[in-house]
């Protein structure tokens, strides 16, 4: 087991290296360098920047040097913990991202827990009561859940809340808590706001997971050991929960590998529509205003979150299923 | 997978299934049981698909949507780019088909008044003033597929000279007709989905095929490449790529750039599937037989191996289209994909991006319904095809 985990961990630096190159290419892709567009922007707004300051920035980012040197300068600064400076916000990037990253994680993990808590019972009930009204209802619900883009759900729910309850369900905090320091009250306030984006973001995943769970369980329910256990007089409910459900959960764990990264990257859209203070809307703004180091840092964060998601699912699977951890030996 | 034949083993070339077509001139020569044994593959798929009622209905819905995509002007009621300052934010006009029990399709005239306090236009329906409408009426001039010029539209106001207008889905901020814009958006959104999937299928088959057929180092490199692509978070990557498209590109250039960007990650799933099939099929007897008969590698791949899983590829790609459509929609919705004056569903929904606009004009959300219906239809259709694709199971 330990060997397996170490093996997985050893790939990480290599993956991160490749990902950082991809992120760097992405931020270099727009025509012209960001400093030029920054100067142009300053010029249009009437202010100007000192010649010396431009040269200092140019030297700092190595803009007059070849691309690979620029890359190593960038990655070198990142490794020492210096995330750089956002020209658009006029603030250090680490300061900008800090709380937003925590809220992004809270939203992602919250959505993940919600999805599993809802999808598994739905899957179990649909499979054990196949072709019942309940099963059909959730089949329809699942199809619609998958077909509706998350931002549509967000927009419709926002409209309903506004139209019928006069509420504006945007943001993650009430106005009085937005800039407040962390406190118990602020956490409670966060939870009061967090549930709606969690439900919206989780709808699509819930539908998919419930479908996987239902299919897995249906396969298990047909197996002979079920017949055997029934013949032995085991009660149906404890039988289902004890054997087939546990087996059906196994393939579900492997979905974490793609589902967790999907939540994080999917949250960009919902967060933008609902104006949530996560890193998603910040990425959008950074991309549009060509604040490229901020964009690069955020893209790298999403990549790391994706890697962590895959890692968690690999480890969980190995822990659940001995066949997988023995495979490599 | 080789089908096992009950009655006449070995008499039919089973791998492609197409060879049997000449044997079956008409179905009634055989009893049903015999027909199954000799039917070509596509016929078996069709028989099975027919049983899935919902998929059949979805197929019809998809055909209607595709027709709209091919002839958007015919279904429009007004030039989609035409703005009108006096007609902004007009609400939905429902069609009344009957009047006092007689068939007399009409809409109620909307009369706008500017609210003196909020300075907003407020529209009221006048139930006494009816505007008769008709099918196949004359309207603005357009060209069918860029060739035939005509002014016939599916639906419109009976008297085109009356200066009355019909707005089935209301109007937007600039007074443009949403229904007509939706029709034109259908062309762009649907075709982006189809073209992106076509590209994915092309690269998927090509690289997956190479990977599975040659194996060894080629396989290893392609597989690692796919793994890296698949572990990238797609949405931020797409956002960064589309944001880096030059702003001064024409609509067509952006359109093709976006299809390529969308298919860049999409091909990986298909490539893996194709590779797996190739790997398992390399060892099959019929491939060996083809080798021994002196077939070229290209012929073995395209004539003998590929046809055995064409139906799977079709089913998988049908299921990939809605994903592409949703992705294009959200990119354009965020302002990173297609930009006005291009019309796509995402561009239309951009008008409904914040709470203020939805509160003012909730009908701006209606293009979202088109997205949901299309995606739903394609998903059910794809599921039906996938179930039918393996007719021997």
Which sequence of strands runs across the widest sheet of chain B?
1-2-3-4
CATH topology group of the largest domain in chain A: MetI-like fold
Number of separate strands of chain B:
4
- SS-derived structural category of chain A: mainly alpha
Query: What coarse outline of chain A follows from CA principal-axis ratios?
Result: globular
Give the uncertain stretches of chain A in residue-range form. Answer: none
Descriptive keywords:
heterodimer; A: 329 residues; mainly alpha; MetI-like fold; two-stranded antiparallel sheet; B: 393 residues; alpha+beta; disordered N terminus
List the helices and strands and how they pair.
The complex is a heterodimer of chains A (329) and B (393).
Chain A: H1 2-28, H2 34-44, H3 51-61, H4 67-79, E1 85-86, E2 91-92, H5 93-128, H6 133-147, H7 150-165, H8 184-221, H9 224-231, H10 236-242, H11 244-254, H12 256-273, H13 279-288, H14 292-320, H15 322-327
Antiparallel strand pairs in A: 1-2
Helix pairs in contact in A: 1-14, 5-6, 5-8, 5-12, 6-8, 7-8, 7-12, 8-11, 8-12, 12-13, 12-14, 13-14
Chain B: H1 32-38, H2 41-51, H3 53-70, H4 72-75, E1 96-99, E2 102-114, E3 121-144, E4 148-157, H5 178-214, H6 216-230, H7 234-243, H8 251-281, H9 285-292, H10 297-305, H11 310-333, H12 345-350, H13 355-360, H14 366-389
Antiparallel strand pairs in B: 1-2, 2-3, 3-4
Helix pairs in contact in B: 2-14, 3-5, 3-14, 5-6, 5-8, 5-11, 6-8, 7-8, 8-11, 9-10, 11-14
């Amino acid at each position: 087991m330990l060997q397996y985990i170490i093996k997985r961990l050893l790939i990480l630096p290599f993956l991160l290296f490749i990902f950082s190159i991809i992120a760097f290419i992405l931020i270099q892709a727009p025509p012209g360098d960001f400093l030029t567009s920054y100067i142009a922007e300053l010029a249009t707004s009437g202010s100007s920047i000192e010649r010396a300051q431009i040269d200092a920035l140019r030297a700092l980012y190595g803009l007059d040097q070849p691309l690979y040197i620029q890359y190593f300068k960038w990655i070198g600064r990142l490794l020492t913990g210096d995330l750089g400076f956002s020209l658009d916000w006029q603030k250090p990037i680490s300061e900008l991202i800090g709380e937003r990253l925590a809220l992004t994680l809270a939203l992602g993990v919250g959505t993940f827990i919600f999805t599993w808590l809802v999808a598994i019972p739905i899957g179990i009930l649909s499979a054990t009561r196949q072709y019942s009204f309940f099963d059909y209802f959730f089949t329809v619900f699942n199809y619609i859940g998958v077909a509706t883009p998350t931002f549509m759900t967000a927009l419709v729910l926002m409209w309903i809340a506004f139209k019928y309850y006069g509420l504006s369900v945007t943001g993650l905090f009430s106005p009085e808590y937005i800039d407040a320091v962390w406190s118990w009250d602020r956490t409670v306030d966060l939870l009061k706001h967090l549930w709606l984006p969690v439900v919206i973001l989780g709808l699509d995943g819930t539908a998919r997971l419930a479908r996987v769970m239902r299919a897995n369980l249906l396969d298990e329910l047909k197996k002979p050991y079920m017949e055997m256990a029934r013949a032995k007089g085991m009660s149906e409910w404890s039988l289902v929960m004890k054997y087939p459900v546990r087996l059906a959960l196994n393939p579900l764990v492997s979905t974490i590998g793609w589902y967790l990264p999907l939540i994080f990257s999917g949250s960009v859209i919902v967060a933008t529509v609902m104006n949530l203070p996560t890193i998603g809307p910040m990425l959008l703004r950074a991309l549009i205003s060509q604040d490229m180091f901020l964009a690069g840092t955020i893209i790298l964060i999403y990549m790391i979150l994706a890697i962590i998601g895959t890692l968690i699912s690999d480890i969980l699977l190995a822990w659940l299923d001995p066949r997988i951890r023995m495979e490599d030996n | 997978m080789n089908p096992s034949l009950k009655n006449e083993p070995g008499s039919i070339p089973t791998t492609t299934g197409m060879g049997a077509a000449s044997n079956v001139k008409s179905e009634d020569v055989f009893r049903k049981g015999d027909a199954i044994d000799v039917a070509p593959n596509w016929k078996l798929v069709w028989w099975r698909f027919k049983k899935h009622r919902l998929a059949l209905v979805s197929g019809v819905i998809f055909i209607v949507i595709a027709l709209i995509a091919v002839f958007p002007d015919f279904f429009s009621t007004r030039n989609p780019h035409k703005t009108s300052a006096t007609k902004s934010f007009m609400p939905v006009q429902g069609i009344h088909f009957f009047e006092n029990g007689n068939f007399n399709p009409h809409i109620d005239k909307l009369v706008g008044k500017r609210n003196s306090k909020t300075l907003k236009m407020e529209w009221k329906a006048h139930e006494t003033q009816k505007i008769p409408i008709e099918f196949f009426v004359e309207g603005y001039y357009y060209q069918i597929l860029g060739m035939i010029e005509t002014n016939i539209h599916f639906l419109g106001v009976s008297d085109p000279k009356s200066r009355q207008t019909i707005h089935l889905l209301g109007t937007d901020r600039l007074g443009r007709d949403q229904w007509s814009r939706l029709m034109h958006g259908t062309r762009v959104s649907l075709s982006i989905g189809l073209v992106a999937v076509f590209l994915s299928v092309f690269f998927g088959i090509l690289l997956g095929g190479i990977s599975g057929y040659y194996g060894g180092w080629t396989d290893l490199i392609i597989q690692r490449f796919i793994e890296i692509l698949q572990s990238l978070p797609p949405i931020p990557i797409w956002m960064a790529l589309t944001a880096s498209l030059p702003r001064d590109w024409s609509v067509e250039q952006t359109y093709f750039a976006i299809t390529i960007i969308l298919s860049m990650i999409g091909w990986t799933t298909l490539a893996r599937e194709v590779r797996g099939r190739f790997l398992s099929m390399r060892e099959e007897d019929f491939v060996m037989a083809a080798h021994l008969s002196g077939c070229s590698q290209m012929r073995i791949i395209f004539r003998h191996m590929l046809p055995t899983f064409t139906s799977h590829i079709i089913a998988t790609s049908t299921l990939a289209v809605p994903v592409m459509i949703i992705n294009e929609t959200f990119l354009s919705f965020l302002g990173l994909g297609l930009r006005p004056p291009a019309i796509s569903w995402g561009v239309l929904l951009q008008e409904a991006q914040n709470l203020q606009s939805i509160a003012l004009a909730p009908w701006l959300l209606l293009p979202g319904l088109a997205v949901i219906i299309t995606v739903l239809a394609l998903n059910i259709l794809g599921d039906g095809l996938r179930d039918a694709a393996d007719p021997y199971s």
